[in-house]
Amino acid sequence: MAFMNRVLPALLIVTVFAAARGLPAAQDTAKNPPLKKGRAQARSYHFKEAEKDIGYTLYVPRAYTSKKKWPLIVALHGLNSNPFQMIHYPGFTSLAEKHGYILVCPMGYNPSAWYGAASFVSRKIGKLSEQDVMNVLGIARKDFNVDPDRIYLLGHSMGGGGTLHLGMKHPELWAALGPIAPAIYSSTRDLVKIRHIPIICIQGAKDKLVKASATRRWIAKMKELQMDHQYIEDPEGGHLIIAFQKMPDIFKFFNKHTRKPPEKKKTKKKEAPSR
């Protein structure tokens, strides 16, 4: 696929950057370290459906206490990336600390499973990818006092497509969505499922991996549906750096929104039969 072929140079940049940061290796499931607030941590759990251990990363603000509810961001990495690279995006944990968010970054079963958002991935792999995200969300809600009305989903590239896909798959969960350069293969018609969910979308006009023209079609549909949305297109932005530069805008947007109930379908009143 053209996207798959074009994505490799950017992935090399991310990998080099991650190595320079000295990212941690995945922890053994039975030996997850004690929680260290204010630090990104590698953790894992036993994924029963996949019959193996799966890693994820976690960040909990220094001020965390179980005596109050905290907002949570689930962050989805891009193609052939991983949770460790995602949580170490420059400024990500600093913003979480500043604004008081818990972060979790799932693997999505494997680095290229697309979170169930791509038809060219087998149904089994796609299902496991979706389930891994939901499992990690469940772990975070079990382990921490998460505000159910302030759970947010964001992702970059493949993760941006996963953000829209899982947003539409579980519209009852999310307070807002933040797709960044979303590689998405669903139809824009599906946005009607989440017309009640606020969305901030980030895109670089010079992105050679995920074309701005494709993202603009989704934005046009959001406008048509009169959705609460914000679109930031950087005229000089490419595929990678824009995710770092515009992360503060995503946090500002999330701060404004709490979960809204889905719109109720209007039902026509049945006319009484004439006598």
Task: Describe this protein's structure.
- β5 (146-156), α5 and β6 form a beta-alpha-beta unit.
- With 275 residues, the protein is of the alpha/beta class.
- It is globular and about 45 Å long.
- Helices cover 34% and strands 20% of the residues.
- The protein contains 8 helices and 8 strands.
- It has an 8-stranded mixed β-sheet, sandwiched between helices.
- α3 packs parallel to α8.
- The percentage helix is 25-40%
Beta-strand residue fraction: 15-25%
Helical stretch count?
Answer: 8
CATH fold-level label: Rossmann fold
CATH architect. name: 3-Layer(aba) Sandwich
List keywords for this structure.
275 residues; alpha/beta; Rossmann fold; 8 helices; 8 strands; 20% strand; globular; disordered N terminus
